[in-house]
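User: Could you go from structure to sequence for me? I need the amino acid at each position, not a summary. Structure tokens:
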């Protein structure tokens, strides 16, 4: 079984914990301390929030400045359009900034925001039944 760990530097760990708690995520306290907080996204997906000083222990060179450019998009799947809208609303209420307009392209629906440290998060719902129906009716591309 593979696991995915996204590591993100944060300026204020307490504020980041409050933000991700407001989004509905829990924390694994076995892997959290004064310098790190492990956000449980799903059983095999976690986000390690690290104070900037602690994050520097894991990288070569200076930290990227998310205000100067986007270095990574953290994308999460959603079960429904409603879940996309709900997570976006909770994020904005907890201090996130809107990033791009809501995307509504047929079976794909998504929203995005910047967390309090400037990291970009996308939340996407893909209506797989609509995709399957389009592919069955010849609506999908068969390649080049």
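Assistant: Here is the amino acid at each position, in order:
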């Amino acid at each position: 079984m593979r696991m995915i760990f996204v590591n993100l530097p944060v300026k204020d760990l307490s504020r980041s914990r409050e933000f991700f708690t407001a989004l509905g995520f829990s924390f694994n306290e076995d892997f959290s301390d004064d310098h790190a907080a492990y956000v449980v996204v799903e059983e095999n997906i976690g986000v390690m929030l690290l104070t900037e000083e602690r994050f520097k222990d894991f990288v070569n060179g200076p930290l990227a400045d998310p205000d100067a450019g986007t270095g990574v998009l953290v994308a999460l799947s959603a079960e429904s359009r409603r879940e996309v809208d709900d997570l976006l609303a909770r994020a904005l209420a907890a201090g996130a900034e809107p990033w791009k307009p809501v995307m509504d392209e047929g079976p794909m629906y998504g929203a995005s925001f910047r967390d309090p440290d400037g990291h970009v998060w996308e939340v996407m719902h893909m209506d797989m039944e609509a995709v399957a129906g389009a592919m069955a009716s010849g609506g999908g591309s068969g390649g080049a």
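One structural detail worth keeping in mind: The first strand starts at residue 4 and ends at 10.
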